[in-house]
Amino acid sequence: MPDFEPDRAVDGPAPGMIFVGGPVLTMDPDRPRAEALAVRDGRITAVGARDEVMGLCGPATEVVDLAGRALLPGFVEAHGHPVMVALAVAPPAVDVRPFTVPTGAGVLDRIRAAVTAAEPGEPVCAYGVDPLLQRDLTPPTRAELDALRPDAPLVVVANSGHAAWANSAALRAAGITRDTPDPAGARFLRDADGEPTGEAHEGGAVEALLWVVAGDRLKPDRLAAALDWAYTEHARVGITTVADLATEPSLVPALRAAAERPGAAVRVRSYLIGTPELAADPDRRFPGHAPAEELFGISGMKLWAEGTAWEGTVATSFPYLDSAATRAMGPGRCNHAPMNYTPDQLAELAGAFTAQGYSMACHVHGDVTFEAVLDAYTRAAAADPEAFRALRPRMEHCGAVTAAQYRRAAELGATVSLFMDHIRWWGDVLADDLFGQEVADRWMAVRSAWDAGHRVSLHNDGVCSPTDPLASVATALTRRTPASGRVHGTAERLTLDEALLAVTAHPAWQLHLDDEIGTLRPGLRADLVVLARDPYGVPPELLPEQAAVTATYLGGRLTWGG
């Protein structure tokens, strides 16, 4: 039976572990399925038929009986925010996301309780409000937040992370006045007299408020504990590698320290916040791509070309609906919103970072903005197209991107990562409140991206939706919004083969780790996830429940379950 002769990396001592008793789904096109897998010293040493792999067993080999469960490569979260998970929702944070607190009344109750429990003068931050899902909630005003907490900073952050609301004490602590300039690519909203209203939009402005309330969370011991908690939460859903797509450079030492602690639960690859200051300072270098055995490395730079559809701050060629939801976003929104940068500024930033040897990851939803980013990438690639391709520059989220634009991106050598949870959680909002059914049906057009030739990855975007790669897979298969059961865009579905590649081998390639992780082949790192059932025998919409993660291994070391 030549198809089941085991692949072996090298001859040598007996394996430390052998997994047997369930399907081994390798993501390797040369051997999609096997019956057993052997591990030694953190790497896969054999994949093949049960009897032949078991023949390698030694007296000290641990045999893991899968008992019908399925073994897959550890999931790779292409676009996460583990640092924000640590800072914003790790206990005892005030988590008011709609997945945690479904109503506006519940949000206010939780914020009031947090304010009551806080020490005098202690800053309070509540993360995750979303009026589109918490339907009885309206964004808080500065006066309302002052009434809740008049004498200490209080900041409420949108679930999207693209907006925040502050009381007067927080504005004073941040030094934000009528004379404060807007950060590059961001803005503080102001009233008719030019005074800040307390509302901030986009990275630099939101971040200025977050630093005020971070407080004790940034103390080394507390930050270390929060990062460990966040990493374990990723391991709990089968993730072995996560990309942090908004790393503040000052936090790099803490991330390196977390990676060096015994028992670190995940491998982290950071994209630093790509500020104009970093672009203008080519001598301020960070180490490039790290090998997989290093549990922290820097993969590139992150830009936000625009905001979010949830705040009316994306640039599209089609209009928003006239609805209660869009009217509540306020004047000046939802009318083909301006980008965070001009096309020339985008091109200058992309060109600078590319010349420094960094891959780019650019947040973009609107089709108008996507075109501008493509133009910027084209200009950045002009000097050396092949070197640009080799960096594997990325486009993130890609809500309204068209099939033609995906084809142009593929021709340029850019790659894409899609946020499928937009359909899972906000599919009905897209159809009924924001854009209409036709746009909802092609939002996150993952089939179009795949057919254009992309190695598509899927992601959960950290705190913005519950981190769970199996939920991304299920949504790519069904295009279903579970709350209503409605399906949005059957023509944009993936197959299970494709969707599993999009959370394993493809994101590993995007992170320049494809020769180390993402598939189960001899010689690669033993990053593994065990699912309760073979996903090929489970109804697609029930994957997260019926094929739930039961164990996760990083380099052959158990990080969650058993």
Q: In this structure, how is the largest beta sheet organized? A: 8 strands, parallel
Distance between the termini: 32 Å
The number of E-state strands comes to: 25
- The number of distinct helices, counting runs of at least 4 residues, comes to 21
- Taken from the alpha-carbon principal axes, the silhouette is globular
Structural class: alpha/beta
Approximate helicity band: 25-40%
Spatial sequence of strands, sheet with the most strands? 7-14-15-16-17-18-19-20
- What integer is the average pLDDT? 93
CA-atom Rg in angstroms:
23 Å
Q: Classify the beta-strand content into a percent band.
A: 15-25%
Spans of at least 5 consecutive residues whose pLDDT stays below 50 are 1-5
Question: Can you summarize this structure?
Answer:
The protein is built from 21 helices and 25 strands.
What would your notes on this structure say?
The chain is of the alpha/beta class. The chain is built from 21 helices and 25 strands. Strands 7-14-15-16-17-18-19-20 form an eight-stranded parallel β-sheet. A six-stranded mixed β-sheet has the order 8-9-10-11-13-12, with helices on both faces. Strand 2 and strand 3 form a beta hairpin. Helix 2 packs across helix 7, helix 7 packs across helix 8 and helix 12 packs parallel to helix 14. The two termini are 32 Å apart.
Which labels suit this protein?
single chain; 562 residues; alpha/beta; 6-stranded mixed beta sheet
Topology (elements, then pairings):
Blueprint: E1 7-8, E2 17-25, E3 33-40, E4 43-48, H1 50-54, E5 62-65, E6 70-73, E7 75-80, H2 82-89, E8 94-95, H3 104-117, E9 124-129, H4 142-148, E10 154-158, E11 163-166, H5 168-174, E12 187-190, E13 196-201, H6 203-214, H7 220-236, E14 239-247, H8 252-260, E15 267-273, H9 276-279, E16 296-304, H10 324-328, H11 343-355, E17 359-364, H12 367-381, H13 385-390, E18 394-397, H14 403-412, E19 415-418, H15 421-434, H16 437-442, H17 446-451, E20 457-458, H18 469-478, E21 480-481, E22 486-487, H19 496-501, H20 505-510, E23 528-531, H21 543-546, E24 549-554, E25 557-561
Parallel strand pairs: 2-5, 7-14, 8-9, 9-10, 14-15, 15-16, 16-17, 17-18, 18-19, 19-20
Antiparallel strand pairs: 1-4, 2-3, 3-4, 6-23, 10-11, 11-13, 12-13, 21-22, 23-24, 24-25
